[in-house]
Design a protein that fits this description.
The structure holds 2 protein chains of 2 kinds.
Chain A lengths: L1 H28 L16 H11 L6 H13 L13 H36 L4 H15 L2 H15 L16 H38 L3 H8 L4 H24 L2 H4 L2 H6 L5 H11 L2 H29 L1 H8 L1
Helix pairs in contact in A: 1-13, 4-5, 4-7, 4-13, 5-7, 6-7, 7-9, 8-9, 9-13, 12-13, 13-14
Chain B lengths: L15 H4 L39 E6 L14 H10 L4 E3 L5 E3 L2 E6 L5 E6 L13 H12 L15 E6 L4 E6 L17 H4 L19 E7 L3 E6 L12 E6 L3 H10 L4 E3 L2 H9 L1 H6 E7 L3 E6 L9 H9 L3 H7 L5 E3 L22 H10 L12 E2 L2 E2 L1 E7 L3 H16 L3 E7 L1 H10 L4 E6 L9 H4 L17 H12 L3 H18 L2 E3 L1 E10 L2 E2 L19 E2 L8
Parallel strand pairs in B: 1-10, 17-18, 17-19
Antiparallel strand pairs in B: 2-3, 4-5, 5-7, 6-7, 8-9, 9-10, 11-21, 12-21, 13-19, 13-20, 14-21, 15-16, 22-23
Helix pairs in contact in B: 8-10, 14-15
Classes of the chains: A mainly alpha, B alpha+beta.
């Protein structure tokens, strides 16, 4: 097992390098250049200052040289400074990171916490009234565009009922302590709901089909024959097997924790990584784009590795195969 | 100090329906009367400054479309930055609502007879919030930073291009010398100052001051939460008239629909509406209950720039034909519901340079057809597309993604051109890519929007042949010796009357040479909570003027504000 993990870690390095090369090249091949973006471009007289900026940040050098300089800095954990406001990139990312983690972490948690029981119950008695009803609702949820749901939820809960705040991360004069926490949670409710329901629908259907398939498998029938109750057979035997694809899927969902959501962040004026990413792309703020791309590559690789290890841990077939 | 921008995707349409224009009667809107031809340059603007008795207190909640990148006044480059800084730091001089210069930090400006040197006297009571006086050393420091080639002071660099020297005469007076006279030079002194003592020993571009500016204006900076808000409070040390609000909160809200809801909820006091939301507002009873809509003309306009170097548009007859094929009257009626004015040159009708006696070219497809024939563009091979020397008259018409109005104008133009045998293929480009092509002069035709932050009408940088792209901002590379001569004369002519005459001749020439299709000057649409009073509109909009928003006040709101 340890050898397996080490081997995977070893291969992560060239993978990251490859991803870096591709992102770097795409960025520099794309039309547009730093300094030109933004809604108000002051074009005149920006000439000499822009040249000076290009020189200062080495943008006038050949691409391989620029890449080498960048990768060298990254290797020393220095992500450089933003072209836009000359602040360290790490500072800008760390500013947005907690907001994105809170939003997407809660969304992922609720998605899984609700999807698994829903899926198991529905899969436990396929074609039952509950299965059909939940299937229809989940399917509708899955196909509902998030921006539309966001506007509906805003209209209902923030405008009509006034139960929840319309936007932002905290009230203007947010109280301290427990009340302040409550205020923050209230602000999280709507965006979290928007980010939750799609994943929830998807995972619930996945669990449902796994469980539905497993419940007629020989080992579940055997378990029932040995006297296990229906619930025991479902949760202990059928669900365990159905869990494997969910664990794999979890590896794919985890990177979303950091990638942010451009649309939801925009609608709820949420100061997360998605907005930082979008703004940086529009302004061609290379250091920030590169850092965020690299970050999401690292998280994706780490999450895939974690989910593979988890699958290996729960599935002896994979574990033995991998070790051998 | 001039700023041009092409309308970017500010108006992200989330609700398809909200963005589609619907023919609805307009109710209770102050609409400027539509004019088929340019109106006289009149300041028929809204001035409520003498209505009611201002009340002090409360919070003003304003919207920023985007995050400021800096709050260093010298480094500012976008509207959100200017909107915040206006409260915190005063300029030496400011424009008032009639576009006249009024004193700010300075009390006097004296030009030498040769027009080369300017002596400025600061007010004796001008003071930074830390108690130190605003001195001529601050002015010298600021101007040296602006002219430093390493500092991207893009707003101020153009007016300091012929800068020669700056020196302090004493604590309150300083002198700036230029190598050449310039008719619009006094606009250089619509200039903020930075506190030299706070920047000592710091990297100017990375200074902590850039995110927490020191005030010398009516308000002082309190906090800036990235992507959320910027907050100011009254600066008790400011010697001038007190601001009426205790605090100003700028919320960074990039989504238009969200901003509209915040306005209805009372979480914002003002918002600029796009035409989709304006249509929604005039039909929305909730809007009528809380808010009002102001429409007024500013100096912005739309145009379609033609690349004068391209074989299609090198001949002024072909360019004129394109202008005569755009039905601008129906754009005014259809796209703008009447609140727009057709323009005949590169200025809005309220610009000091606009000559009302130059009527726009008419919409006249028959005349345009004759002009195309004369220019040698005929359909010789019978394929329905005009050609000349074996080249079909077919070109790409660029528009930036998100510019809804630009795209609609392009579609109308393209349809009309197709009818006379000219093919215009509309190509939508992402903003940065679009800008790159325009700057490089690598295009045939492109839809642009002009946005003015000051009333400087000097056309030199944009239409003089020495400013051709890629090195200058004459993107379409219009080159006419006659026009060049007029522009050179205008920028040296210090007598306003004679300058106006020169510009009028230029205006007529630009209309007939048609280096671009000058489309319309559209009204700006601003929504405000009804409690906000003391408004003054101007050709620079609600904000870039003095006192402008600094004179706003609020009636204590009786209804509940969540």
């Amino acid at each position: 097992m340890t050898a397996y993990i080490l081997r995977r870690l070893f291969w992560a390095v060239p993978t990251l390098f490859g991803i870096s090369v591709i992102v770097f090249l795409l960025l520099h091949l794309a039309p547009g250049s730093p300094g030109a973006g933004g809604a108000d471009s002051l074009r005149r007289a920006s000439g000499r200052a822009a040249e000076e900026m290009r020189r200062q940040y080495g943008l006038d050098r050949p691409l391989p040289e620029q890449f080498a300089a960048w990768i060298g800095r990254v290797a020393r954990l220095d992500l450089g400074e933003s072209f836009a406001d000359h602040r360290p990139v790490s500072e800008r990312i760390l500013e947005a990171l907690p907001h994105t983690l809170a939003l997407n972490g809660l969304a992922l948690f609720f998605a899984l916490a609700l999807a698994i029981p829903l899926g198991v119950v529905a899969g436990g008695s396929p074609e039952s009234a509950f299965d059909r009803a939940s299937g229809a609702v989940l399917f509708a949820m899955y196909s509902m565009p998030t921006f539309w749901a966001a506007l509906l939820l805003q209209t209902l809960f923030a405008v009509r009922l006034r139960w929840l705040p319309l936007y932002g991360t905290a009230a203007d004069a947010a109280p301290a302590g427990l009340a302040g926490l409550g205020d923050r949670l209230a602000h999280l409710a709507l965006p979290v709901a928007c980010l939750t329901y799609g994943t929830l629908a998807f995972v619930a259907r996945l669990v449902r089909s796994g469980v539905a398939e497993a419940r007629t498998a020989d080992y579940v029938i055997a378990a029932r024959a040995r006297g296990a109750s229906r619930g025991q057979a479902l949760w202990r035997h059928a669900f365990r097997n159905a869990l494997l694809p969910v664990i794999t899927l979890f590896g794919l969902l985890l990177p979303a924790l950091l990638s942010g959501s451009v649309i939801i962040e925009r609608i709820f004026a949420w100061p997360g990584l998605g907005r930082l990413y979008l703004d940086s792309i529009l302004a061609r703020d290379y250091p920030v784009i590169l850092a965020l791309s690299l970050l999401s590559a690292v998280v994706t690789l780490a999450a895939t590795l974690l989910s593979d290890i988890a699958v290996a841990a729960v599935d002896p077939r994979v574990r033995d195969g991998a070790a051998g | 100090m001039k700023r041009a921008f092409w309308s970017a995707g500010l108006a992200l349409c989330l609700l398809g329906a909200a963005c589609r224009a619907k023919p609805e009667p307009e109710a209770a809107v102050r609409t400027p009367s539509p004019t088929a031809r340019p109106a006289l340059p009149a300041l028929g603007f809204i001035d409520e400054s003498s209505q009611g008795t201002p009340v002090d207190g409360g919070v003003l909640r304003r919207r920023l479309f985007g995050e400021p990148t800096t709050l260093n006044a010298v480094l500012q480059s976008s509207a959100p930055e200017a909107q915040v800084l206006q409260y915190v730091q005063r300029n030496l001089f400011d424009f008032d609502a009639r576009l006249e210069l009024v004193p700010g930090l300075a009390e006097a400006l004296e030009a030498s007879p040769d027009g080369l040197s300017y002596t400025i006297t600061l007010r004796a009571d001008a003071v930074w919030e830390d108690g130190r006086p605003v001195t001529s050393a601050d002015a010298v420091f600021t101007i040296r930073k602006i002219v430093d080639p390493k500092i991207p002071a893009n707003v101020f660099k153009p007016v300091f291009e012929e800068f020669e020297s700056v020196e302090a005469l004493d604590g309150r007076r300083f002198q700036v010398r230029f190598s050449r006279p310039y008719a619009f030079r006094s606009m250089a002194f619509v200039l903020p100052l930075l506190p030299e003592h706070r920047f000592a020993g710091q990297n100017f571009l990375k200074s902590k001051q850039n995110r927490a500016p020191l005030a010398n204006g009516p308000y002082r900076f309190i906090s800036w939460k990235t992507q959320e808000s910027v907050e100011l409070e009254r600066n008790e040390k400011y010697p001038g008239p007190r601001g009426h609000f205790d605090r100003i909160v700028f919320r960074i809200v990039s989504d238009n629909t969200t901003a509209y809801r915040l306005l209805l909820e009372g979480e914002l006091d003002e918002d600029q509406l796009d035409s989709g939301l304006k249509d929604r507002a005039v039909r929305d009873p909730a809007f009528a209950a809380c808010c009002r809509l102001l429409e007024f003309y500013n100096l912005d306009y739309n145009y379609v720039v033609l690349n004068n170097r391209s074989p299609f548009f090198a001949d002024p007859r072909a360019r004129r034909a394109v202008t005569m094929l755009l039905d601008r009257a129906s754009i005014v009626r259809g796209l703008y519901k009447g609140s727009a004015r057709i323009i005949s040159g590169p200025w809005a009708p309220d610009s000091p340079a606009y000559e009302a006696r130059v009527p726009p070219l008419p919409f006249d497809p028959a005349a345009a057809t004759r002009l195309l024939d004369e220019a040698g563009w005929k359909d010789t091979d019978g394929d329905g597309v005009r050609d000349r020397d074996g080249r079909p008259f077919a070109f790409d018409l660029l528009v930036s993604a998100g510019s809804e109005i630009g795209r609609q104008i392009d579609e109308m133009l393209s349809a009309e051109l197709a009818r006379v045998g000219v093919t215009a293929r509309i190509r939508t480009l992402e903003w940065a890519a679009f800008v790159e092509k325009i700057d490089a002069g690598d295009f045939e035709a492109a839809s642009l929007a002009w946005s003015a932050v000051d009333p400087n009408p000097d056309p030199y940088f944009y239409w003089h042949s020495s400013q051709c792209s890629p090195n200058g901002l004459n993107n379409g590379c219009y080159a006419s010796p006659e026009a060049d001569g007029l522009m050179e004369t205008a920028r040296l002519e210090t007598d306003p009357g004679r300058r106006k005459e020169v510009l009028a001749r230029l205006h007529r020439l630009l209309r007939d040479d048609a280096p671009a299709v000058f489309v319309v000057n559209a009204a700006q649409k601003v929504a405000l909570r009804r409690r906000i009073r003391g408004l003054t509109t101007s050709p620079l909009g609600l904000y870039g003027i003095w006192p402008g928003p600094l004179a706003w006040w609020a009636e204590p709101e009786t209804g509940k504000a969540p």
